[in-house]
Amino acid sequence: MEKFITLTSLAAPLDRSNVDTDQIIPKQFLKRIERTGYGDFLFFDWRRTASGEQDPNFELNDPRYNGAQILIAGKNFACGSSREHAAWALSDFGFRAVIAPTFADIFFSNAGKNGIVLVRLSEEQVAQLLHNAQSIANYQLTVNLAEQTVTDSQGFKASFEIDPFRKFCLIEGLDDIGLTLRHAAALDTFENQHDHLTWLAPK
User: Fold this and answer.
1) Residues 6+ apart with CB under 8 A from 170
2) For residues 200 and 5, what is the distance between their CA atoms, to the nearest angstrom?
């Protein structure tokens, strides 16, 4: 998992509340075995028309937001089912941080395990950021995880809370496997001792 310390990026607005995980990654795309490739299907039903063409009215199809790594959304983002594929799709599309007033609890855990920083700000602060992203060309934000702040070049600054353990994992770039591998030497010692004791045990 890539380390996250500070990110300065174009910010894309998704001015919608109660965006559920089936909208983030529709169920028909959950058959893949790998974690990659889901970005092509992110918000598929909103990004595409009935004929399969890109819908020019959908925010993320606006060329102004090409390459954005920060998504600004409404409250209760990623509600609904607990599918981890929602985090995979956002990450594969290129988003490394999502800013919203509230998030679904299970998604909050899934996102952190996949290197995505979720920033909870007040509804008023998010409304201001949405307005800025919609009205200011090439609007960029800086998410500083070490200092737990969000800033822009217009004078905006806000602080956010994050669980210390999740913050540590994100800064160090440690997912669940990475956390386990930090104890690789101790695990090897245990396995060697276990194998030795098994060999010595009476038949």
Assistant:
1) 3, 4, 112, 115, 117, 145
2) 49
How far out from the chain centre does Cα 80 lie? 16
Work out how many domains the chain is built from and give that number.
2
Confidence of residue 183 (pLDDT cuts 50, 70, 90): very low
Residues 188 and 88 both lie in one domain: no
**What confidence tens digit (pLDDT) does each residue in 86-120 have?**
999 999 999 999 999 999 999 998 999 999 999 99
Distance CA 69, CA 94 (A): 6
Do residues 74 and 127 make contact, with C-beta atoms less than 8 angstroms apart? no
Measured distance CA(18)–CA(79) in Å, rounded: 6
Q: Which domain holds residue 203?
A: 175-203
Element spanning 159, H or E: strand 157-159
Q: What is the pLDDT of residues 13-27, one digit of tens each?
A: 999 999 999 999 999
> What is the Cα–Cα distance from 44 to 108, expressed in whole angstroms?
22
Nearest residue to 88 (alpha-carbon basis) of 169, 186, 198, 175: 175
pTM of the model: 0.86
| 1 assigned to some structural domain | no
Q: Of 39, 153, 117, 47, nearest to 85 (Cα)? A: 39
Q: What angle do CA 138, 101, 15 make, to 5 degrees?
A: 50
